[in-house]
Amino acid sequence: MASRYFEPFRHRDFALLWSGLRVDRHPIGLSYVLAARLLPAVVFVLLGGAIVDRVPRRLAMLGSDLARGAALGDSALDTERIGSTSVPGLAAKSIVDVVLTVADVDNEAAYVPALTSVGFVLRVREPEHRMLRTPAQDVHLHVYEPDRPEVRDYLDLRAWLRVDTRDRELYAATKRRLARQQWTDMNHYADAKTEVICDVLTRARAWREVQRRLTRGCNGFILSVR
Questions:
Q1: How far apart are alpha carbons 72 and 80 in whole angstroms?
Q2: Which residues are CB-contacts of 38 (< 8 A; sequence separation ≥ 6)?
Q3: What is the mean pLDDT of the chain?
């Protein structure tokens, strides 16, 4: 007798219908269902907030937006954090700069829709370069092809400023001095840093070349030992 009573519940549609009717008859049961719908959002929001509250803001920003960038899939060849926020100890605005390399910058269909779908906005379209940013303007994403000299310059400058205290302090002092001035266009602020950046970049390139030669020398030595 009991087995025949439970037989209909083996059918999913009947079980759902019975459950819905039972819950609908009891306001408390219905309130439990509504609360259960909100539970995942409440738990994940509180958990995410607790985590973010214990992580440096720039790191949280970067992690969030790189997670968005995962929507690119195979279109992204590489991503690198660049700019002042990528250099520990260097004064910086709360703007994270990232360089993204793709196989063909002109093939915007391969990467722009994926980025705009997660909140980025295309702001700059130049030959061999695109720049997207978040609506809050706290992340700037520069898109290049991997063999562009701009990519190497970004990485050389970052690497050099991480190891050379004198140029890091020079660049920081230049930024502080310029920040005290009034700028009607931030492009003028960027232009005012050009001379110092070029000087620092010259030393960064020379240092990088020495590093490459040392690496090649070590590799040759290792091969000869083998």
A1: 15
A2: none
A3: 77
